[in-house]
């Protein structure tokens, strides 16, 4: 009985605990409900409603208060999609910058007139030989006086004739040195615009000092200094003019720069006619470089690509906004710039690859070009092509003094004849591509000069040889124009000017040798020019095509692209 009573007691206790748990469970529900409804004061309830409404509004408005992450794209994409590839801004910038090419033509081709051999005459009525060599100095005189040129002032004839070529070679040697130095400086801290200002000031000062030369050797030294500045003008102006232009318009724009150079040669001929003495000619052709720095360059913007590779993204974006505004467009909100090998969404402060990319993008040198397999062979081929092209182009241009006709008219015709070559090349550039066009123009020049070597130099054959020379310079002028845009597209932004400087050095080396080839006379120049043209065509065959290809900013970008091509 006692055991039954204990069992009943335990069962009863168990039932009571069960009912207690049920009451507790049931009590939680009313308590929870009461917390919301029954046991909450009106003021507390209103506060909770307000808080709930605030949370809802915050969720709805968060997209406007906190915009989505900024869209990042390269300069080419931003120009193509939003700012405009070639509008009013690029046209104004291009024309103002390329004015420097006209001034470079003054400094480069002034030697044709300053170092010319003026007409002379015998003082006696007897027979007069074709050359004054061997005639007593008292038996003849210069028709225009001794102040007409350096040749007449310092007697650079006969055995001293080599000094004319030496002074011309000194100028091109200076160009070779200046192109290398300013190619590097414009890629580094000095920038494209800063480098262009420095070389123009140097040209103005050295040109005026050249006009004051008391002796031949000082004249040659100052021509070296003048060439040092002139060597940097072309490449700095070219890169500065073409980098803000969109990819589909950059080829034609780059080709158009040579119109300014050829136009400068034609203008120079008129200036030389108005100022027939060599000293006054140097002054008149040098001062415009200073005026360019003072009156034109302040209205030219620095390259946004240079700002970008120097990690000055805000400055680059300001220029891109100016481009869009002037072109009648607007950049989307929240858009920003990136280098071509950066990935969207990466944070520069927390991503080691982005930091390495930025450090790499700050500056580059020709050593980086040689070190990279993606650019090494491109550089070697371009060095050879630029060398042979310069030998032919400058050789045929300087040969105008041997035609024994009106020098001023010949120079004008020579410069004007180059313009159709530029136009035809510009039209065909984006239709056939850089490589086929370069190969064809080099082959045309080489074959025509080879024919000129095979024909005679008397009678009708003299005219045939002249035609061969005209066709040769037509083809080489087209290729010379193409080389700048081709070279610029072959190398990334970080080393573009360094590469342009190096190939320009090779070009100037060819220009140094060109006067020596011309001096050989007879058929030798045409033989050399023909061989150079054909060799240049063969080298062009091994270059890659760059038409409609991205304009890379860093070495990593082009190396990744080349690696992807190998995988494909």
Automatic annotation (TrEMBL):
Residues 1-48 are annotated as: Disordered. It is a multi-pass membrane protein. It comes from the Eukaryota. The chain crosses the membrane at residues 165-182, 194-212, 218-240, 252-275, 281-301, 379-396, 408-429, 436-457, 463-486, 498-518, 524-543. One of its GO terms (biological process) is phosphate ion transport. One of its GO terms (cellular component) is membrane. Pfam families: Sugar_tr. GO terms for molecular function: symporter activity. The keyword Transcription does not apply. It is found in: Membrane. Residues 1-29 have a biased composition (Basic and acidic residues). Keywords: Membrane, Phosphate transport, Symport, Transmembrane, Transmembrane helix, Transport. Gene3D superfamilies: MFS general substrate transporter like domains. Its main location: membrane. Residues 93-548 form the Major facilitator superfamily (MFS) profile domain. Belongs to the major facilitator superfamily. Phosphate:H(+) symporter (TC 2.A.1.9) family. PANTHER family: SOLUTE CARRIER FAMILY 22 MEMBER. This is H(+)/Pi cotransporter. It comes from Platanthera zijinensis.
């Amino acid at each position: 009985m006692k055991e039954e009573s204990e069992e009943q007691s335990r069962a009863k206790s168990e039932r009571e605990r069960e009912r207690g748990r049920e009451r507790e469970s049931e009590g939680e529900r009313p308590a929870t409900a009461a917390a919301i409804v029954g046991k909450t004061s009106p003021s507390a309830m209103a506060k909770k409603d307000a808080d709930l409404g605030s949370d809802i509004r915050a969720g709805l408005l968060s997209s406007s208060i906190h915009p989505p992450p900024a869209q990042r794209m390269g300069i080419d994409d931003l120009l193509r999609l939003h700012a405009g590839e070639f509008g009013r801004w690029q046209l104004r910038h291009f024309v103002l910058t390329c004015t420097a090419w006209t001034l470079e033509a003054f400094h480069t081709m002034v030697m044709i007139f300053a170092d010319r051999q003026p007409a002379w005459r015998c003082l006696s009525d007897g027979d007069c030989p074709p050359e004054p060599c061997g005639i007593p100095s008292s038996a003849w005189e210069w028709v225009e006086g001794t102040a007409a040129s350096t040749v007449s002032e310092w007697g650079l004839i006969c055995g001293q004739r080599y000094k004319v070529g030496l002074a011309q070679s000194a100028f091109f040697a200076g160009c070779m040195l200046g192109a290398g130095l300013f190619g590097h400086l414009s890629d580094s801290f000095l920038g494209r615009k800063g480098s262009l200002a420095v070389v123009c000031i140097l040209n103005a000062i050295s040109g005026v000092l050249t006009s004051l030369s008391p002796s031949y050797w000082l004249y040659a030294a100052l021509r070296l200094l003048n060439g040092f500045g002139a060597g940097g003008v072309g490449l700095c102006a070219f890169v500065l003019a073409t980098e803000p232009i969109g990819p589909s318009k950059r080829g034609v724009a780059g080709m158009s720069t040579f119109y300014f150079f050829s136009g400068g040669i034609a203008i120079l001929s008129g200036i030389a006619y108005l100022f027939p003495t060599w000293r006054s000619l140097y002054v008149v052709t040098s001062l415009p470089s200073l005026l360019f720095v003072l009156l034109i360059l302040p209205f030219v913007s620095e390259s946004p690509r240079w700002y970008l590779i120097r990690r000055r993204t805000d400055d680059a974006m300001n220029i891109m906004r100016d481009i869009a505004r002037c072109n009648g467009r607007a950049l989307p909100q929240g858009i920003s710039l990136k280098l071509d090998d950066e990935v969207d969404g990466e944070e520069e402060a927390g991503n080691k690859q982005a930091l390495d990319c930025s450090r790499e993008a700050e500056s580059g040198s020709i050593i980086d070009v040689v070190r990279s397999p993606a650019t090494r062979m491109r550089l070697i081929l371009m060095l050879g092509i630029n060398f042979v092209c310069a030998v032919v182009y400058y050789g045929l241009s300087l040969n105008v003094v041997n035609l024994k006709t009106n020098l001023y008219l010949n120079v004008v015709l020579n410069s004007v004849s180059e313009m159709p070559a530029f136009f035809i090349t510009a039209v065909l550039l984006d239709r056939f591509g850089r490589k086929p066009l370069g190969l064809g123009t080099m082959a045309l020049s080489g074959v025509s000069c080879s024919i000129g070597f095979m024909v005679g130099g008397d009678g009708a054959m003299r005219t045939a040889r002249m035609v061969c020379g005209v066709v040769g310079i037509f083809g080489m002028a087209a290729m010379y124009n193409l080389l700048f845009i081709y070279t610029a597209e072959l190398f990334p932004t970080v080393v573009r000017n360094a590469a342009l400087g190096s190939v320009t050095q090779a070009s100037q080396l060819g220009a140094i040798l060109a006067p020596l080839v011309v001096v050989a006379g007879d058929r030798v120049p045409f033989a050399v020019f023909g061989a150079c043209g054909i060799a240049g065509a063969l080298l062009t065959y091994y270059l890659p095509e760059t038409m409609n290809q991205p304009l890379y900013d860093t070495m990593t970008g082009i190396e990744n692209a080349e690696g992807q091509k190998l995988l494909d």
